[in-house]
Write a structure and sequence with these properties.
The protein has helices at about 5-25, 50-65, 75-90, 95-105, 125-135, 145-165, 170-175, 180-185, 195-205, 230-235. It has about 260 residues and is mainly alpha-helical. α7 packs across α8 (about 180-185).
């Protein structure tokens, strides 16, 4: 893709996001987000202008962490009924939700990030309160409750996919760092390295759970990065600090936005 084509796509995505942010209030349905996503949206120095090298390294690092994770894992089965319900309610694929959970918390319902995101899909407290209103949650708002967390987190990502015109990669970047940051990046040079790594990890990890991992465009053979010890990562409660990538930045841009769609 040429530089003019890339910039045109970024401009279109920014325009769609701006229109959708106005149109999609809390009460708008989250069903039927378009699937398929798009290419990586970033132009950090040192890659080929499309984020390919960054994505290839992130994919290799994620695959190196698969271990025995699969749809049959005990922790996965424990939340499968909540994921199935959330997928049906929001027009999402189950493997997409599983990929986010794996990256965010390794299926630990009590995970807490350095910035205070909680539970399986790492919801910030004020954002969780807002999402509870959006989904009509009548029980106690508790992000450590797997049923609520999956319901709210799945609604959130489905709304973001709609907001960003069906582009899963941009929606995932917004899930990780907030729509405000992503809209600002789209008005500039595109997604930063950390966002490419995040969405690539999710799109790769979904393949662990019965989905088809999203391919990375052909590039030079990735160099396997150093992988931190699993115990060190699990103690942080933030599974996205993996594989020697942008571990000092992952998740730290997440803001506690009480009105994320506005």
């Amino acid at each position: 893709m040429s530089r003019p084509d890339i910039r045109a796509r970024i401009a279109l995505a920014a325009c769609l996001a701006a229109v959708a942010a106005v149109a999609l209030g809390c009460g708008a349905p989250a069903r039927d987000p378009k699937s398929g996503g798009g290419a990586a949206h970033a132009r950090p120095p040192g890659d080929d202008g499309s984020g390919t090298d960054i994505a290839a390294r992130a994919r290799a690092a994620t695959l190196s962490r698969q271990g025995t994770w699969s749809i049959d894992d005990e922790k996965v089965r424990a939340v499968s009924k909540f994921v199935s319900r959330a997928a049906a309610d929001n027009g999402l694929r189950e493997d997409f939700i599983y990929g986010i959970i794996w990256v965010e918390s390794r299926f630990d319902p009590e995970a807490v990030s350095p910035v205070g995101a909680r539970g399986l899909m790492q919801l910030m407290p004020k954002t969780a309160d807002y999402l509870a209103e959006c989904i009509g949650w009548t029980g106690r708002v508790d992000s450590y409750d797997p049923e609520f967390n999956v319901a709210a987190g799945s609604y959130y990502i489905a709304r973001l996919v709609r907001q960003f015109g069906g582009d899963e990669e941009i929606a995932l970047a917004a899930y990780n760092a907030g729509p405000t940051n992503v809209n600002r990046w789209l008005r500039g040079d595109g997604l930063p390295k950390v966002s490419i790594e995040y969405h690539t990890m999710v799109q790769t990890a979904r393949g662990f759970f019965g989905g088809e991992a999203r391919p990375v465009a052909p590039a030079a053979a990735p160099v396997a990065p150093a992988v931190p010890a699993a115990d060190d990562l699990d103690r942080l409660g933030l599974a996205i600090l993996i594989a020697g990538l942008s571990e000092d930045e992952f998740g730290l841009q997440r803001t506690d936005d009480p009105t994320p769609f506005e």
